[in-house]
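Suppose a classmate hands you a notebook page containing two proteins, each written out with its sequence and a corresponding row of structure tokens. How would you begin to make sense of it? This section walks through that situation. The first entry is reproduced here exactly as it would appear on such a page.
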Amino acid sequence: MSTPTGFGEPVRDPDQAEARMNAWAQQLADKAARYRDVGERTQALRLTAASPDGAVRVTVRADGALDDLEFGDRARTLPLPDLAQQVMNTVRRAQAQIADQVAAVMTDRLGDEDQQTRSLVLDNLRARFPEPDDEDTAAGAAATNDRQADDPDDEENELW
């Protein structure tokens, strides 16, 4: 008498059972290798964004961490609170690219495999790094463009 194996039809032949187990183990090993590759490619991702006026350029990693920050010449003319707002807005724009880039890596390496896992990963990334609100970006730009001249006697607001 044979018992179901969980792999389809019951197997009576021990050699056939061993072959099925070996095939199943190989499929798992192949899948693990594809996921390792996705992880390595994702860790290597770097996403860059620049402020509209070129004052700020940032690069973030796939985990959202800041990897590089550069200031253009325009940054010297901005009051520090405005520059800080531009840095934050630019970081958010770079981070908002993460989910799309990870999705591209997953599609390239996994094809249509594991849609549920992919959805969980990408939904998590989109929740952590949403598209910046146009209002936030516009408010930062408006603050930069509309700020009154700083008090020339205020030493804390001197240009660097």
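The notebook's second entry, a different protein, reads as follows.
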Amino acid sequence: MVSLYPFWIPSLYSYSYISGIKFISFYTIVMSIIFMNFTMYYITRINSRRHYNPLYEVISRPTLNRIMDRILIFIFLLIVSSCYLIMGVNLKIRSLMIPWMVFFGFVVSFQLIILLWQLEFYFMGFHNLTGTLINFIWITKNIHCWIVVYSKFKFIGLIPTPNIEIFS
């Protein structure tokens, strides 16, 4: 059974899954490029010029480059899986949608861990509350995007394919 029928966020409303998933894929690619640039900026700056970021707070300097390389590889794989998502929706091939759902599931779970960490350790002032609320709204939007793609994944599974023969 399909979980969601229309795709909705405040800036876009569509009954078409194709346009909604193309928007989700475009959003994933753009946000991945932004985070890739931020990570590369973070690697190249010295400690005194860095902005505070809880993601990189516990990383020591010797392991920083290895961890940042892995983060960049993950972001690149997320961009590739977004391209596979568009191809999978256009061609109605479910297996091309699975990498995006797995990688984006990791993104949402990591974002949830950061949110819980913010609530536990940095819930001291109003500016931290604002950041936590923005992160919560962002997580709910990302979960909605994942559910839309999962609904299309299940819908494609309900469509009979011409490759299957029924033997009586």
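A careful reader of the second entry would note: The first helix runs from residue 17 to 44.
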